[in-house]
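Why predict the complex rather than its parts? Because the way molecules touch one another can change local conformation, and only a joint prediction can capture that. The input here totals 224 residues.
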Amino acid sequence: ETGVTQTPRHLVMGMTNKKSLKCEQHLGHNAMYWYKQSAKKPLELMFVYNFKEQTENNSVPSRFSPECPNSSHLFLHLHTLQPEDSALYLCASSQVLAGAPQTQYFGPGTRLLVL
Amino acid sequence: GQNIDQPTEMTATEGAIVQINCTYQTSGFNGLFWYQQHAGEAPTFLSYNVLDGLEEKGRFSSFLSRSKGYSYLLLKELQMKDSASYLCAVVDSNYQLIWGAGTKLIIKP
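Output of the joint prediction:
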């Protein structure tokens, strides 16, 4: 248990569906992240939120829409996904201090399958 | 471009020692992380190196050579539960994490 929870753990959706992934961190951190993990590929950073403000959007398609209502919760809204979007979606959090790298703590991920 | 290289898969025997290498080419360097990820679970933090040398933490040790752009994770007295993927990640000049693809370690009895 790392202090970061994600729901659902597994999700199967059609290309026309709309669904949302949820992440919650109980560590008092001020930054949250969404990553995509595909088999045998490096983790792909999708979005970063510092103090609820989005600071990073790594050219992610608009069919992925993040939302960060407060520093403890992070959502990833999904709509009209493609089969190649099937992957493990990981949420992470960290305590960001100026000029210092911080350890990221990960949730268990949501295994997404798009049919 | 930025690049992290790790072997895709390694196999070792229970009770033995294994060394997982990571080489990197990044724009700047502000440290290197190692994470462990069991199948279907969250990556968990193992170590962080920012200075050259060896850091020992129980059965696991991590080594860094900044001049060579090289790190390794050393696992001693291997146990079956050490079967997992091991992820190397470098912090670049913008304090962004650049991730390797991970090394899947298989432990055999």
